[in-house]
Write a structure and sequence with these properties.
Four copies of one chain form a homotetramer. With about 350 residues, the first copy, chain A, is an alpha/beta fold. Helix content of chain A is about 40%, strand content about 20%. In chain A, helix 2 packs parallel to helix 11. Chains A, B, C, D: Homotetramer.
């Protein structure tokens, strides 16, 4: 079987394994206080043009989202997100388990708009009984989104401005950020993210890393005692070196963007082939996830040789399926898939 | 500096890295459904003589404790633990953050006794207003304990029998289980743990693994829908292969016990040297942690060349310090430390 | 000002105060173990035709909903509710604060349908990654609903059957149950509720009681150790006699239904007047809440003399307002309001 | 049976019922925005010499403690309390259910000392791994304590000074404050409490009120959006008038202190009689709770006619029992009890 089900089905960029072997018996402190993690933090701060930022390492995306949101909110606050947002639909209620409501707004191709946030906030502030409901505390978006789409710098800046104008924090989930940074249409840089957000993370797991995500907090004051919060939430790795080395290697020598570029190019090749062969897209995406509408018969036929995700059914009986490429996808596998369409 | 501060200051047993490299580009499913994890589960079930057990992989010890305890308890229940237990003192309130009280009983050298549990439960049941307090739901112990001591099979069996007689579940934290299994005095096997407990974990992080802990649940019915609980708690690794491979390798070819044996032998050599040189032990331990009483001047002198843990002060001004060896400790480093005492 | 803002703006049915005075110095046990509460439980069990039911007394509606839902769910489960449901929009995230997601389905006039529940559950069970999301544990509906509408016995029976077929529990919020029982169109009795639900409550606060709500649990096994849960949640009154006496009096001599009837008759008179005068209803309701569409000028004019709720704006600029009557509404006040329309 | 089991076994001071009847049909806003509650707040602010204070009304003591502590702490903080503190032992884990650890220090006759807080904080700050544990956020004490003892003004001032010096907040549980204010030995006034604490409450339920407790927050900034927190926690009464009227009446015309004085005088009469008849006290208390050591035979004999609390057993087999008087205790009942000793 050839797998297009997700972007974490292989191990990691080989240079990370090389570095693991090279440093295996070096004795270092635990809990992210090792020199590899320190170096990774330095590299990330520099890449973000944000020398004062805190950088915290997590083991995975749901953990990063849930713990960061919990840290940014007080107990009476909730998080505004698109209805398709990962925190709303695919994290087993992790935000709610930590006490916070996910306040959903309808997304357009998986994206929130500044206008939608403003309209909702104005209605909230117009409501006489707003003390009786969850207080909005922050906005959550993903770049790329759950549907593989991208915010432009202007769109993200507008959301940031609106959020901050209403006293809301802004957090950007970058689980697949490499594929966003590498997209042809993208104009949002790490420096932009550091300027516009209160926190964002650079995804490692799905972007060629061995393990982990790197949370960047441009103004560390918004997350006081965050190590204790992470520890309490079971999110501190004793062997912090694993994530430290992952990001030290991944963020050096342009490897992160290269990893993204590989995935994006193959995904876009697949997208063009789908369109040429007359398939309809569910949403047109510039990154490494392609959402296509297939009839059941085609689904069944492709499933014999390829693994991909059943996303949802649509009214006419067709299925939305997702093909996902990665830093490690074999171009020959994409060719085989295209041939089989 | 030579580090005796903990048992997670090096990477991992090299065979794990070899296997990571060998399998790096093999495409597998995520979330622990990969063949490496499946194979690790099979090996662990066999080692425990418990073919029906569920085996769940976690990223670290605090996470395993907090999520398992949360899964085993209902919302009105608490967990009984020794006052020195890791869940009480060193996990940043992780159990409480998930809603449960840690009910502490005085430990003796870090150990609970069946008698103490029975006495507490009898007083609880004798209390007319026991509906007004947290209901006890389970007992938590560590093997080895936080103080490096061990339960004998008879002691553990007595605790299990007492707990179950009162309707309490029993969970054993095996973060350092390799060092317990390898101790000369030990008579508790993996099979015993599978027979006596409702859940226990085989520690990887501190015992030579790259990452992770393996939770064994002899009767899976006590933790229904546990994958969802783990996901909600941010405790599912997308790249489950990392922990899968760790345990596949660690639990094969007697590596786990060998890793433990190496650490224990060096720790015991250090212990004998301390006693010969006239130092007093805070507690006499058969495993890889040695707790000694040092005066401040000796502490300062040793700190110039060695890293170890300041545990606590005692009344006469001396400090309790902990020296910890591991699967990776260099015998020459122990010799140097002994020479410096 | 004449108040039509809600149904808890007066004190209580005078007979309750009489009984409070009469029993004021009688010494009784606390925490709901007093003879008044015991008698109220007996009366309620009889009225429900359910001698084995547990009856628990709470201080208010949000508390009853949040604590009961928390008790009925395990930590990985969520509650299905209409998007307009009180637990979703007006309880400050109380369900989420206790760790559970509110899974919203679109309501029709504030009502869920068995069909909507079935469709959602079938899609859930068809989702390969359903282990990654909150598990549905129960269905929440209100009778009357947040929009003053009523479920028929057939509708409620269909929801109960569907819920139970999928292993979901059913909880009915009866904060305004008196106004439902007294509605001309109603065919759902207390006995029906006891037969169809896993728990429901008889609202006191809004229905003429001094304080409190009476939760009926037909099969007590679904809420083990519920007193401890209530205590933990701050929901046990030391002077349980207050709620006990409230329900002892309220549920005797047909007072509960009479209280409802008074409110419903006046609300329906107001509704007819609104329609006669050419106003449009937002939703046609048979109970004590009337939702009408008013232009801003009429809102302003009426606000000079009457208090009512601004519910929401609609697209054409008109406002949805709610007029609420109660057991205590003065018919002359309704006449004045009608005259002012 | 004559009841000495607690101080909430009767209804309330009759003047409260009179006022309830007098105002029963007055229409007022809900949720504590009624004029009775407003007036009660005014009276309380004046009595505390603290015009800027916020005053929030709760339905009971456990609720007040749990919600206030939750509001004052962030998610990574715990509360320091005496091991005998009500929040530690008698609230079913309410603090933990909201995510916070209760950090217990040994109490002396139920009291914390500034010295104990200082010593604990110094050890905490001396611990290199203090980021791995719950951060202390506040100190909780009761006046009178769970054991009926009182803090002097000097003792309380020392605790306040120490707490604030370490950045900890101070909260005083005044469930039985009337009996403290009325004690002969007492030198702590409401004004002192408003000056020394970050929050304290004036108990109503146990001190002659119909229902409720009044939380005083001298500096409202420490509890932002507290109404929403209360609503989320199920702690807002729709009919706030009940608690408003309770405190309006209770805090007028010296009724609160008079209620306390009645209870204290009878308790002290009982204490003197116990001592005269040769019984030993478990702890010598100046308030309305008397703790005596009785042999089992005397317990059994008294239990035939009197209700009192079994507190605990002591080593020699005797029982500690608690006799509790109240604002409503009949002097003749105390005489009967004394005669029966």
């Amino acid at each position: 079987m050839l797998r297009f089900a997700c972007d974490y089905q292989e191990g990691c960029i080989p240079a990370i394994l090389d570095r693991l072997i090279e440093t295996n018996l070096v004795q270092v402190a635990g809990y992210g206080e090792d020199p590899f993690a320190e170096n990774a933090r330095r590299i990330i701060r520099e890449a973000c043009g944000c020398p004062q930022a805190d950088v915290h390492f997590f083991a995975g995306g749901t953990q990063t989202n849930a713990v960061t949101i919990h840290g940014l909110l007080t107990s009476y606050e909730g998080v505004i997100a698109a209805d398709t947002g990962h925190v709303n639909g695919h994290e087993a209620g992790a935000v709610e388990a930590r006490g916070h409501k996910v306040i959903t707004l309808p997304g357009i191709d998986g994206k929130l708009t500044a206008e939608a946030v403003r309209t909702w906030m104005e209605a909230f502030l117009d409501d006489d009984s707003r003390d009786h409901v969850v207080q909005p505390g922050m906005v959550y978006v993903s770049q790329p989104t759950e549907l593989g789409t991208l915010y432009s710098r202007a769109e993200l800046a507008a959301i940031a401005e609106t959020a901050h104008a209403f006293g809301l924090k802004l957090f950007v989930d970058g689980a697949r950020l490499a594929y966003g940074l590498a997209a042809k249409e993208n104009d949002v840089t790490l420096e932009d993210l550091a300027k516009l957000t209160d926190a964002f993370y650079i995804g490692g797991t799905k972007c060629g890393g061995l393990i982990g995500e790197a949370l960047v907090v441009p103004n560390p004051k918004v997350l006081p005692h965050f190590f204790t919060t992470m520890k309490q939430q079971g999110a501190v790795l004793a062997k912090g070196r694993l994530v430290g080395i992952t990001f030290e290697v991944l963020m050096s020598d342009n490897r992160y963007v290269e990893a993204g570029r590989h995935g994006v190019e193959l995904a876009q090749r697949l997208k063009r082939a789908l369109l040429e062969k007359g398939y309809e897209l569910f949403v047109d995406t510039p990154t490494n996830q392609i959402f296509a509408l297939l009839d059941q018969e085609t689904c069944n036929r492709l499933s014999e040789k390829f693994v991909f995700s059943n996303w949802q059914r649509v009214a006419d009986g067709r299925r939305v399926v997702r093909f996902c490429t990665s830093w490690a996808t074999d171009p020959a596998a994409v060719d085989e898939l295209i041939a089989a369409l």
